[in-house]
Amino acid sequence: MTAPNVLVLRSPGANCDVESAYAFELAGAKTESIHIRRLLENPSLVDDFQILCLPGGFSYGDDVSAGRVLGNEVRLHLADACNRFKEAGKLVLGICNGFQVLMKTGLLDVDDDQGPLATLTLNDSGHFEARWVRMAVEPGECVFLQGLSDIELPVAHAEGKFVARDQAVFDQLASAGRLVLRYTAADGSSPAGYPANPNGAMGDVAGVCDSTGRVFGLMPHPERFVEHTQHPRWTRGGIDGGVGLKVFENAVGYFR
Amino acid sequence: MLWEVDIHPAASQADRAAERLIASARAAGYSENLQAATARSFLVQGEHLGEAELQRICDQLLCDRVVEQAVFAPVGDDRLVATPERLTGDATLVQVLPKPGVMDPVALSAETAIADLGVERPLVRTLNKYWLTGVDAATAQSISDRLLANDAIEQAVLGPLSVDHLDAGGAYEFKLQHVQISGLDDAALMRLSKEGQLYLQLAEMQTIQRYFADLGREPTDIELETLAQTWSEHCSHKTLAGRIAYRDENGERTFDNMLKETIFAATLALRERWGDDDWCVSIFKDNAGIVRFDDEDNIAFKVETHNHPSALEPYGGANTGLGGVIRDTLGTGLGAKPVCSTDVFCFAPPTADAADLPPGVLHPRRVMQGVVEGVRDYGNRMGIPTVNGAVYFDERYLGNPLVYCGNAGIIPRDKSFKEPLPGDLAVAIGGRTGRDGIHGATFSSAELTSESEDLSGGAVQIGNAIEEKRVLDVLLQARDRGLYTAVTDCGAGGFSSAVGEMGEEIGAEVWLEKAPLKYDGLSYTEIWISEAQERMVFSVPEEKLEEFQSLCGSEGVEAIVIGRYTPTGNLLLKYGDEVVGELPMSLLHDGRPPVVRQASYTPAPIEPLNPPDKADYTDDLLKILGSLNVASKEWVIRQYDHEVQGGSVVKPLVGVKSDGPGDAAVVRPKLASRRGMVISCGMNPRYGDLDTGRMAASAIDEAVRNCVAVGADPTRIAVLDNFCWGDCEKPETLGSLVRAAITCHDLSLELETPFVSGKDSLNNEFSYESDGQKQTIAIPPSLLISAMGQVADVESCVTMDLKQAGNALYLIGDTRDELGGSHFALVNNLTGGAAPNVNGLAARETFLAMHRAISGGLVRSCHDLSEGGLAAAAAEMAFAGELGAQIDLSSVPFAGPGDTVATRLFSETNTRFLCEVAPENEAAFTVALGGRAAKVGVVTEDPKLTIESPGGAVVSAPLDQLKAAWKSPLAW
User: Fold this and answer.
1) Which residue of B has its CA nearest to A131?
2) Which pLDDT score is estimated for B440?
3) What number is the ipTM of this complex?
4) What's the fold here for domain B798-972?
5) Which of A215, B474, B755, B891 has a CA 20 to 30 Å removed from the CA of A4?
6) Residue B456: predicted pLDDT
C-alpha cells in the first residue's frame, strides 16, 4: 500500500497542526490540514483518509473545560463519520488538546451508561506547566507505541490530570491494557511523584488507547521530539534522533 | 429565564481553588481560621429555558461529572447561596463578576456551545463564588478587595446576586457633538485637555484652536479625539522624535529629531557601510523591524510595553500587551508569521509589606502573579512559544511595574512591504468593537495616580486569544493568496490610528455605522477610538473583496468593509449620511507644533567603592545567587509553553535537570531548515543610577554577548530599544535618556549591530498623597535591549552547563574594577563605584573570535558573565551541569587599578565569557581567541565550586547549597 493520508484537524485555537503534520510527513505519510468547519459541512471528507490526527492547542480557548467545545461538535455532528472511520480499521491519534477532545467524543471507549469513566482535569499545581517527562510504555494492542518501552517527551498543559471515576474503573482500564503510557521518575522507577508526574494523574497515566488499540490519546507531545536538537540535553551528547518520531512511523507503518 | 449554574468539586475531589485562596490569604496576613469553598459559575439566559435543558447543558457541557458536581437554579434561589456542605460554620459569600462590557471569552464560547446543543440565542456570563468562614464580613470584604476582585474590570458582590437579565447596551440615538474651543484661554484649554482625557499639551491645544478658528467653526468631538490619538505620545513619540536641546559634560547639542539623529542614524550609516552586503530590510518604519534570514525569508522583531494598563489590572494588561505585540508581527509588511515571544518584567520586590503600600497600589506579588498569568494565557493559547525573558526588581517599580512584550516572526521576502492603493476598501476583521479600551493611547501619556483606577477603568481590557488565533490563521492564507495590498493592527487609538496610518499618503473615508459592535449604544466617536482587542484593518482591492470575505467567513472571522482609501488627502468620517469629522491627513501627521524640550545630564561624580576585604566570599556568592534579580525564574518559565511549533533548540532552562539559566533561546523558524533564530536581552537599571550611558552600553553588550554565547553570528545580530523612563518634561530625566540614546548610537556603530525597531514609554511616575503632601515615585531609567541573532546551523549551538570533568575553563576578556551598581554592592549595601563600560571596537573583535571558536566546535559550554561576575557564572555552570569547578583567581587577567579578590570575583565588567574546552581543543581554542583567553580552572567530578586565591580558597561551597540558594527565593 502507498503512503497513508492523514487528516490533521484544524479548529479555532488548534496550534500544533503544523508540526504534527510535519512529523507525519517525516514518517512518510501524506497530510492535509482541514478546518472543523469544512468537516461539519461535509462529514464524508474523512472517508478519504486513513489516519485522523487531533493536534494540540487550545480548541475554542479550552473555554468551559479543555477540549469540551470541540469534543461536543465531534460527538454531536460527526459521530457517524467517525464511527465509520473507526470501524474501517483506521487510526485516530489525539495529542494533548487532541487527547482532551478525544476523551469527550466517545471514540476512546471511555463512557458507559452512567456517563464518562474518566476525565482529564486541572493539574494539581492549578496552572499550565511545560517540562520534559519520562514515561514507561506498555504498548499492548496500541498501534502507535509498538516497539517502545520507555520514552522522553515534553508536556505542556494545564488540564492533563487523568482521573478515573473510581478505583474499580481504573483497575478495569488497567487490566484491559488501555493505560499504555505512564509517567515515571527520571530513573525510570514508579511511582513518579511531582514533577515527574507533572499533573497529579491517577496511576501516573499519560496516555490511553481504546479497546482496539487503534485510537490513542496522550498528553505529551511526540511531534516535538522528531529530531535530536529538540531534546533538552542534546548539547550534552548521547541523543540520537527523535524518539517521538516512532509514534508517527508506527502509524504510517500500519498501512504498509 | 435567567439561570445560574454553580460547578463545585465532586465529593471525592479537593477544592484546589479554595486551598490556593487560603494559602495566599495567609501569606497576606489574614487569619489562620479562614476556611473557604469555591465554585465557578455561569449565568445562563434564554427564552423558554427549562430545567431539563439546563440539566442537559450541565451534563454535556458545563460540568465534568467525574470530578465535578453542578448545582443549578433560577437566579435568586436559596440553593445558590447556601454554604456548601464541605464547609462548616457561617459563611460570607463573595461573588466576583466581570463588569458589563468587559471581555468574557469563556462566556462567548459557552454561548456558542449551548447554541450547538439546540438552545436559541443563549446569553452567558461567568462568575466566581467564594464562601468564606472564620472571618467577619469586614475581613471578607477586605479579602475580596485585595485578593479576589480587581475593581478595574470586576465587581464583587457580598451576598446574593440581584441581576435579572444579561443583555448589555441600549439603543444609540445619533447626535452630532461639537466641542467649544474658540475663545478658551490657556487655562481653559488645558482643562479641556485633561478633563476630556485628551492629554495634549498647551501648544498643541493652541494649534488646534487656531486651525478651527481659521475654518470658522468648532471641532466635533470626533475630530478632537482623532487629533489627540494621533498626536499622543504613544502613537507619535513626540518627545523622543522631537526637538531637544541637550547639555552634558561634553557640551551642548541640539536635535531636530533626537531618535532619528542618534539611533536611526547609526543604522543608516551601517547600511551604507555594508553596501551590497546590507542585511537590513525594513527599519523603523513598519510595525516591526525586518532583516534578512535566508534566500526565501526575512525575520521581523518588535518589543512593546504595556505598563500603565498592567499597573491597574496586571492580568488584562499583560494579556493584551502580548496580544498587541503579536498583532504588530501580523501587521508587519503583508503579515509575518509569529514564531516566538519574549517577555521582560520589572516589579517591586514581592516581599513588600502590604501595610506599607501607598493608596491605589496593588501588592507587587499580586502584580507579578497577574502579569505572568496574563502572558501565559495569551501566548500559550496563540501557540507561540515564549522562549526568552527576564524579571528585574526594584522598589521604584511599586506604582509602575513594567511589562515588555516582544514577538518575532518570519515573512517571505516578497511579502515584506505593503502599500495601500487609492480606491482600496478598508476592511476590519476579528473582534467586534465595544466600549473597552477607550482612551488607552492618550491615557498612556498620563502620570498614574492613586485615582487612576477610577478614572481610566475603560482603558483596561481582557484579551480573547482565540479570536486573535483565528485572525492569524486567515491572515496568513489571505496573504499567500494575494488578497490585500496592506494590513495593520488596531492598537492604541483603534480604528483612528489604523485607518489614519494606512491612509496617510492617500486619504480615507470611513463609514462608522458599518463597524460590527459587541452591543448597541456606542456613539460614532466611541466606535472610532475604541481599542477593543483582536482587530486588524486591511486594504483590499474591490475585485478581491469577495474571496477575502469568503476566506474569513470559512474560519468564523467577521470581515466588514468600513471605508475606502480615497485619494483626497483628507480623512472623512461619516455615520450614515452625516459627516461627523473631516481633517486633512497633513494636519494629523505633520501638523503638530514643534516644541523644543530642554535636556541636561550631569554624570554623578564617581565616589570610591571600597569592597570589604574578607578571607571568604562564599556567603557573598550565596546572597548574590539568592537575590531576586539573579535567582531562578523557573516558576515563571514553566508556565509558558516554550516548545510549541516544534522549533525549540536551546530552551530557556538548560542542563542535566533542565533548571540552569540559559543565556539565549534558539529556535528554528522553519522545521525543514537547520538555520536558527537566537533571542536574548540585556538590561540593568542599577547601572543607570550611576550613568545612563554606561547602563545603555552594558545592556547592548549583554544582549549581544548572550546571543554570541549560544552560538549566534555577531555579524547578524539586530537589536531593539525600549526606553521606559519617568517624566521627560523634567530636563534631567530627559537628559538621562538622551545620554543613553547617544551611547546606543555610538556603540551600534562600533559593534556593527544595527537597531531595527524600538518603542518608548515615558511618564512612568506614580503620585499619591501622604500627610497632605504629593509624593512621587519615578521608575529608574530602564532601557531594555532585545537582540535577535542568527546561527547558520543550530547543530553548532552550545549551552552553559558544564559537560565533562577534566575539561579546562577559560575566561575571555579582561576584568576591571567595575563594582558600581553590581550585585556585590547590592548584597553588601555598598554605594559608589564605576558602572561597567564597554570598549565597542574591542568587544566586536572578542565577539567575532568567540564565534570562530564556537562555530568551529571548540567549546563544550559557554556562559556570559553578568550580575555577580565570575563567581556567579562559575556557580551557575557547575550546578547546571552537576559537575564541580576549581578556579584559580590569580590567573584572571585584570586591567587597571582596584585589583582585589572581591573585584576579581564579582566585578561586572562587560564582554566576558567563561568557556569549557576539552583538552584536545585547547590549542585550537587559544588560537581562535587570539590571546583573549586565559585558562583559569578545570571541571571536576567533585560536586563543589572552589575558587582559590594565593592565600587559600576564597569561595568553597557544595553545588547543592549554591543551587538551593539560587532556586529558593521565587520557588512559588
Assistant:
1) B638
2) 59
3) 0.97
4) Phosphoribosyl-aminoimidazole Synthetase; Chain A, domain 2 (3.90.650)
5) B474
6) 44
